């Protein structure tokens, strides 16, 4: 699946992904009005509103971008109706040829991760039939439970030609509380036990995110694609460019999903060190900055009626920003 | 919410929770046949089968136990239909007076955790109305993103009188890969920044799970109940009794949800040190060991037709096992 994503990035010249994370605050009044008129001020009405909102943004941007990243929490908050809108969004994006990264951040003990992997990337067997529950192309995965919480996702990726991005260094302000903690040199207790079975590995003091980064790189060897990158990727926030540069070197075959551009504070020049010399190796997400562009001073001229045109312009500007950042460092 | 759970535990004399984690392998043939006859060998058919399976187990055990813990992954794998069965299970358990712990292990950046918290413990505003998406009583939360991924859950708990259990030391074999890593003494980089704003805390070398345990205890101060325990609890696996004993002392006001009893290997005598001298402070989960008891040699005499009677007997035996373990150490 990473090969297909890379081909889409090359074709569009846009190493970006649009985060489809709708909240009711972002949805223009005329869309809410139409949705509520049909389904009432209910969970179903809200779900209809975010679906109509998404659809218009997808229609106005799909030709410019390789991928979208719907954040399932934004749908899950509207219960079953919201998750139906999540599924409709996935299916519609795939119809439009977009790669769909389900931002689900699941991760659990082995048997439970198996169920999550089946839900989002694979299929379940029912009698003699097989069904896909949500069927994204990629999913984000939380590594806190270790290898046996991640491997079931990798197994499904192998079978279904899908991919994952494992959280390494997240974009939020408090990500350092655990992820930046220095791990003592030579730590061996339980280390790698699920990974290579040997147990003992020695290393110098270094932060937890580096340990996780190396694990991700090791897991990735199982799913290498033809362009030198693995379908087991990593999440590293745009808001931590120095750590991004370190991780880029530590995980040379790991594709990096980079959240935190735009509204969270990351800019094009923060991002160039996440990429290799061929402008590959990373894909940058923007959510609010694109989908709620019409609420931003810069794009106000479009107005709420043309909110999706504002999103299209924001995509074009983001591609230009990253392009200029590449040029400025000679990439 | 922790007060209500404690009262239910005292009333039943059973510090246990039944994990409603159905898979198709556990569902007896006669139930599958009935469900498939009505809805076909489809996602809807599978969801109907697990709902019928759950309902019978709930009907046969609800008077003995304080709480249930449905694992959402087991429902999510059946897509929308599965999540409808999850919601039906929650509602039915609450009708029966059971405390419902949604085992969802969510956790994300602040704005996203807000959405998850609203989805599972709180309400969303739509127009002038407020709706609850799933409405569990407790949810499990992943701490990898730090304070700003956890605090939104705590805020909703305050408003809605709900609770959470934060993953500290999980029950799976590879939990040590990250959680047991020794953190270097005196580490300060980014530490506690989202927690108390001071940044610098010094400490001796110790494993990550202790750091997380202390954070959980600190977060818990915001939600203390009248019996000396907080509505911010912790997850610590029965499979790691030594760590459980350490954590019990480190987090004296933290209620501990203990998975891993039974099928995962934990026994009654492993568990006594998770509890205080009043037999409180912890609640032990068993999933497969209860819901699939009829498939176990010990309960085979019940037969598939009476699978829920086997579950009832397994609950009674589990209560006895823990009770005897208490007696053996004079608790």
Question: Globular, elongated, flat, extended or rod-shaped: what is the shape of chain A?
Answer: globular
Number of helices of chain A: 13
- Classify the secondary structure makeup of chain A into a structural class: alpha/beta
* Largest β-sheet summary of chain A: 8 strands, parallel, barrel
Q: Largest chain-chain contact?
A: A-B, 86 and 86 residues
User: Which H/E pattern describes the elements of chain A?
Assistant: HEHHEHHEHEEEHEHEEHEHEHEHH
| Rounded radius of gyration of chain A (Å) | 20 Å
Percent range for β-strand residues of chain A: 15-25%
Oligomer: homodimer
Given as residue ranges, the uncertain stretches of chain A (5+ residues, pLDDT < 50) are: 187-199
Question: Helix share of residues of chain A?
Answer: 40-55%
Arrangement of strands in the largest sheet of chain A: 1-2-3-6-7-10-11-12
Whole-number average pLDDT of chain A? 93
Distance between the termini of chain A: 25 Å
What would your notes on this structure say?
2 copies of one chain form a homodimer. Chain A is α/β, with parallel strands linked by helices and 331 residues long. Helix content of chain A is 44%, strand content 15%. Chain A has helices at 2-12, 29-39, 43-61, 73-76, 79-95, 110-120, 147-160, 176-179, 208-220, 241-250, 268-271, 288-291, 307-328; strands at 16-18, 67-68, 99-106, 124-126, 129-131, 138-141, 163-169, 182-183, 206-207, 230-236, 254-258, 282-286. In chain A, the strands form 3 sheets. Chain A has an 8-stranded parallel beta barrel, surrounded by 7 helices. In chain A, strand 6, helix 7 and strand 7 (163-169) form a beta-alpha-beta unit. In chain A, helix 2 crosses helix 3 (43-61), helix 3 (43-61) runs parallel beside helix 5 (79-95) and helix 6 packs parallel to helix 7. The first copy, chain A, is globular. Mean pLDDT of chain A is 93; it is low at 187-199. Chains A and B meet through helix 3, helix 4, helix 5, helix 6 and strand 4 of A and helix 3, helix 4, helix 5, helix 6 and strand 4 of B.
